[in-house]
Amino acid sequence: MTQFKFRLPRQPFLHGKFVDSHRKDRHELTSATDGSQVMTDLQWAALEDVELAVDSAEKGLKDWQALSPEKRRSYLLRYADLIESHAEELAYLEVIVTGKPMVLASGYEVPQLANILRYYAGYTDKLSGESYPLGDGLVKMVVHEPLGVCAAITAFNSPMILFALKVAPALASGNVMIIKGSEFNSLSSLRLAELATEAGLPNGAINVLIGGADVGNALATNKRIRKISFTGSVATGKKVQIAATESNLKRVTLELGGKSPVVIFRDANLNNAARAASNFLAFNGQGCILGTRILVQEEISDPFLQALKQLIQEHAKTLGSDPMELSTLSCPLFHLQQHTRVAEFLDLGKQEAEVLVGGSVCQRPGLYVEPTVFVNPKPGARILHEEIFGPVAVVQTFKTESEAIEMANNTEYGLGAFIHTNDISRALRVASKIQSGTVAINTSENMSPQMPFGGNKISGLGRENARYALMAYTEPKSIFIRYL
């Protein structure tokens, strides 16, 4: 029997404590690193548990809203501090399942989670409204009121950051939250809910359920839930929106992935651009905004491809490294279904394009595939237009700026884009014409609590982060007062 460094949560977290699910079956979690067994008794929620979560949330809502904004802020700040003090534990709960590098989970994701909470904690007493000039005998005011019980469905790739993106603006604006964590990567979400109670938040302020599509559908159709936020695939996002509409027209935020272009002009610093382009390997390609369509100007395509290939080959040598070692940056695909999907795209890519590097499933324990770059794709190639969500990129060349813009926009997705050039006029000109929610120029940085995050076209609906997310958890109310 494997001995784990920290306790592994396995039950739904409802009204301030772990409770047994109403389902009798139990589910297995295995390590993506080597296939070893993590647990055999993970408890997915039953539909009865969804109703209990909503009951709890309604009670917690009254307690949360009874607190002053200053008190709510103090609880959220205490929560952020407590999360930081448990950074190793929270990261460990993801690493043992997914094989995600400990250095990224503990050194990037946990600090980001805490920063997002602190950012929104500062908003608890700053939900300002509007007033309009007197003169018609009326005082006219607009106030922003919380929606009430909210729900969120998070993805398997980054549950801690997604937890923060949903929970922080919801609680800061006076709502409560029910999270459905991914059945593939749920342990950190369960522990985060428990830490909220330890930080003093009222029971019911945050409830966490684990389960499959039936639990997600139950949340999307529940008429007592006023908003649902979803991160995941386009196909599931459409189902969430339909369910939300057909039930009680609950508010919806959708973040549905991308096929982000990386546009590299001939005047870009070649080594910096190649290193930035290789960022599609972050989290083994399991990031919605990662640049997986690389567009490079013809004049520099040969030296660029040589530099990129060398970086990919160096990264490939590290596959299978111990994720607990702080020097490890590579990782497997996080669950078997994703591994199967990426392997199918690798086979498809060999029919639709040429292989620059990689292209095969690794012959070693664990859910590994070779980091892969395809070049010269056929027109209409699926690898060029569909989100793969793995360490796979496709390279095309362009001649002119206008051609680069047209190629960058030749996708149904519109989440992010990356531009590399030393000409700031060109950078701003191209950025204004690319159809995406975020554009990064000469950097791979693409997320900050102060900046709205979300997509155009089928990449989603609404925004997370910044004041935009806060407003999405409120409803404006117009008030008229006659004073004459």
From TrEMBL:
EC number(s) on file: 1.2.1.3
Record: active site: 255
Domain of life: Eukaryota
PROSITE patterns referenced in this protein's UniProt entry, alphabetically: ALDEHYDE_DEHYDR_GLU
Entry keywords, A to Z: Oxidoreductase
Catalytic activity: an aldehyde + NAD(+) + H2O = a carboxylate + NADH + 2 H(+)
Domain Aldehyde dehydrogenase, chain residue ranges per copy: 20-479
Classification via InterPro entries: Ald_DH/histidinol_DH, Ald_DH_C, Ald_DH_CS_GLU, Ald_DH_N, Aldehyde_DH_dom
Single Gene Ontology MF annotation: aldehyde dehydrogenase (NAD+) activity
Keyword ATP-binding among UniProt keywords: no
PANTHER family in the record: ALDEHYDE DEHYDROGENASE-RELATED
Family, per entry: Belongs to the aldehyde dehydrogenase family.
UniProt-recorded name of the protein: aldehyde dehydrogenase (NAD(+))
Organism: Hypocrea virens (strain Gv29-8 / FGSC 10586) (Gliocladium virens)
The organism's taxonomic lineage, starting at the top: Eukaryota, Fungi, Dikarya, Ascomycota, Pezizomycotina
